[in-house]
Amino acid sequence: MWFPDKKQELLRRIDSLSNDYQQMSLDHQRETQFNREGQLKEQQLKNEIRKLQSFMSRDPFVSVLIDGDGMIFEDELMRRGELGGKEAATKLWNAIKDHMHEKLPSIPSDCRIVTRIYANLKGLAEICYKSGIVERINTIEDFYRGFTGSKILFDFVDVGHGKDRADEKITELFKLHLNDYHCHHIYFGCSHDNGYARLLEQYTEPTHTTRITLVEGVPFERELKFLQSQFSCVKFDDLFRPDKINIYNPVQHPTSQPAPNQSARTSSDTSGVPLSQAQNFYQSPYQPTIGDTNPSTAPNNALMNPKASSWASTATAAAQLVSPPATPTPAVSQSMSSKDIPRNRYGQRVDPPVVYDKEVVNRVRNLKLCNVHFLRKDCQYDPCTHDHCYKITKNELTSLRSIARNVPCYFGNECDDPKCIYGHK
């Protein structure tokens, strides 16, 4: 016989178990739904990852960045004009491919080669013509036309004249490609310019150094040598010049002589470039030849001061266009000595301060005066493309000295030329 209280307790237990079952059933359904949604989400994410991986592995390339102001192709290639440019592009492409195969096996075999060369075409052409590398100024233009046209992704960019124009463009493109996942490696041709040491110092971590190879043309400059051991380096034989161009023994090319009253500022050289467009360049980065110091026979050591590592630095000295009859060159003082050069306690050259008027500087800059004639008294160019006849005042001479110091001296604070007119910071 069932007792009422036991019956009630049994009913309560049944209700409790029923509620527990319903709750567990709901929990199970919720977990099942959550797992199903999680599985769907996981599958979606995996699909997205596969798409991203496929996208990132698409169009792989290596970047070849060359500062053409100092990384100069071999003379024989440039003499051949357009055909030489095509051959240079093919040689460079093959050299990069061989190096990738030998040293960088992890790079995909279908990786494309994107090459950019930045330089001042007019300055480069002028200096190659005056140094005797080519017989026509237009040969250099033909060379780079052939280089650009031979490969779809090979380009030569003419940056025009102006300080550090090539450097700035190369630096920004270097940073862009280094952070681009599609770019697997960078070949960086910059051995001639210490300025690129500032850029490379920022990327000395292994994650970056393994993706950079320095291409050597001329020997690495002093500051780059300190960083050379931290990066891979390669030298392509028979492709880039191993030494700097000697600009102190220019080759005289036959030119037509103008009428005596023809103005030098509207004359043209053998390339047909107006003189007014060939001026206002700064100095050249090329190697001097040490020889006779007699001002009547020796080349001018300051006019072609080989500091700025750009061809944009060369056109003023290189463009020997038609000009008025040369002013007699004053005699060089023999009393000056390297002992007279002011130096600090570390033996580094120090430039004396120059006080100048900014308005006078701006006016003098537009006069197109010959820095070497007025500041060194030994301009060797006859005819010279800049003015020797202007009656300069003392204030204008001081301003001209300040303008000349804006061009850094190649030898920096180690310069021992007592008559050097360039900056030595």
Indicate the structural class.
Answer: alpha/beta
Q: Helix count?
A: 14
Name the beta content range.
5-15%
Mean pLDDT over the residues: 79
Q: Output the strand order for the largest sheet.
A: 3-2-1-4-5-6
Q: What level of helicity do the residues show?
A: 25-40%
Q: Radius of gyration, Cα only, in angstroms?
A: 34 Å
General form: elongated
Tell me how many strands there are: 6
Low-pLDDT regions:
255-334
User: What series of H and E elements makes up the topology?
Assistant: HEHHEHHEHEHHEHEHHHHH
Distance between the termini: 115 Å
Largest sheet: 6 strands, parallel
Question: Characteristics of this structure?
Answer:
425 residues, 6-stranded parallel sheet
Structural summary, described in words:
This protein has 425 residues and is an alpha/beta fold. The N and C termini lie far apart (115 Å). The radius of gyration is 34 Å and the shape is elongated. The protein has helices at residues 4-56, 75-79, 81-103, 121-130, 138-150, 165-178, 196-200, 206-209, 222-228, 275-278, 315-318, 358-365, 371-375, 394-404; strands at residues 61-67, 112-119, 154-158, 183-189, 212-216, 232-235. 39% of the residues lie in helices and 8% in strands. A six-stranded parallel sheet has the order 3-2-1-4-5-6, sandwiched between helices. The model is unreliable at 255-334 (pLDDT under 50).
